[in-house]
Automatic annotation (TrEMBL), chains A, B, C, D:
Pfam families assigned: Csp
Superkingdom of source: Bacteria
Lineage, opening ranks: Bacteria, Pseudomonadati, Myxococcota, Polyangia, Polyangiales
Protein's recorded name: Ferredoxin
InterPro entries (UniProt xref): Csp_YhjQ, YHJQ-like
PANTHER family cross-referenced by the UniProt entry: CYTOPLASMIC PROTEIN, CYTOPLASMIC PROTEIN-RELATED
Amino acid sequence: MEMTARMLEMTPGIRMRSDRALLACIDACFECAQVCTLCANACLQERMVAMLRQCIRLNLDCADVCDATGRVLSRVGPHGTRMARTMVEACAIACEECARECEQHADVHEHCRLCAEACRRCERACRALLAS
Amino acid sequence: MEMTARMLEMTPGIRMRSDRALLACIDACFECAQVCTLCANACLQERMVAMLRQCIRLNLDCADVCDATGRVLSRVGPHGTRMARTMVEACAIACEECARECEQHADVHEHCRLCAEACRRCERACRALLAS
Amino acid sequence: MEMTARMLEMTPGIRMRSDRALLACIDACFECAQVCTLCANACLQERMVAMLRQCIRLNLDCADVCDATGRVLSRVGPHGTRMARTMVEACAIACEECARECEQHADVHEHCRLCAEACRRCERACRALLAS
Amino acid sequence: MEMTARMLEMTPGIRMRSDRALLACIDACFECAQVCTLCANACLQERMVAMLRQCIRLNLDCADVCDATGRVLSRVGPHGTRMARTMVEACAIACEECARECEQHADVHEHCRLCAEACRRCERACRALLAS
């Protein structure tokens, strides 16, 4: 959201105000955490919940990892680059694993299709940040 | 975001698909959690950090309460109304307390001005949900 | 844990160092959050997962509310009493709702029995803090 | 805590019931998250808060990463090994960075000394799990 950019712009000592990749990744992380939380709940309500066990677990994992990564990146600065980098790697993998599982249910469950899309967006945002 | 509406619409057994107040509150909670996390960090970087202690604490509290409220509301259904209701009350108070503190620094710190606005939006969304 | 007491004792400006009810509540909140996370996962792995939907949802809610309450209470001080109080009320209700559901499965699922016990401990710790 | 062992023992399909390294790591993660949250708050209350900025930031980062790692490990099973592994690596680095900073203030601030110890315990538990 535009808010992230405006808040980071006003943070003293942060020189990454023009860092599009960072901003995009923070927003993608928080969006993905929210969508995965909703997808876990939707899966839990499905009649065939027994088939969706792994999907629910990966949704919950992905929500937790994305949320922590979004928080860590919101505080990123001159310090902590090594840890933040490894968190972004973990986040890219969490999104990839969750997307792959959700994609298998995308034809049947529309919420899985939307969730897979959010995970792929976040995965791309993480990889773009790692490459920058 | 539109995503919240689309995800809840597809959740089996949820009859509140047309509940604008719920959707608006979920999004306001997650937005406010994110903005408060960024404001806590910006305050921490300010030269006059010693004057902003209470602001940082209320930012951290508000971020945690908004995040938990957003997650609980994402799972809301026929159950748990009493707990969800009390969480929304706690969230409205957390937002009000944080906004009141941030408003005192709004002239000096632009991030506090923006944060106070996000807190007031979330407070209103919580009160609208409680009234509905 | 003893750590909570030692950490709070060393926090400047906190006069509640002898507040047994606060310390007990912080620890009970974090313990309950952890046990509920484990119970949600154990329920998800059960063959009869479809019967445990509500239990899983209440586990996830209770984990989120307990975690946020534990964090808020860790920062409690001269400020914020009204919000902290409402959070502790929400936490007591979350624990009560989760315990009541888990108790229904306690004969069949040992993890639900243990989880109900942790929820009841946390509920009592919350009510003791509210009464103090 | 003993609870973690008992809960995981009762989780269907988990064969790691005898996995001491996993159990120790889950508990160390949740303990470290709690201690880092308390240390961030204690640092914020110190008269010399301006000297403790980086310490507070690393405390908050470490608390978020430890909490997410503890949750992910609580759900670990036949799936997701690659992501869980990278999270444990990120957690070991977060603990190491936070411990190193806290150790610089350990002579002056007893809460930093205790926090550094909790971080080093968690770092060791993470590395022991990665080695197993």
